[in-house]
Amino acid sequence: MRKLITLTILSLLALVMGCASMSGDSKQKVVYHINYNDEAQLNAALGNVKNHIEAVGPDKIEVIVVMHGNGVDLLKIANTNLDMQQKVIGLKKEGVAFEVCNNTLVKKKINYKNDLFDVSQKDIVPSGVAEVANLQQKGYAYIKP
Question: DSSP alpha helices (H): ranges in 23-121?
Answer without folding.
Answer: 39-56, 73-80, 82-93, 102-107, 112-115
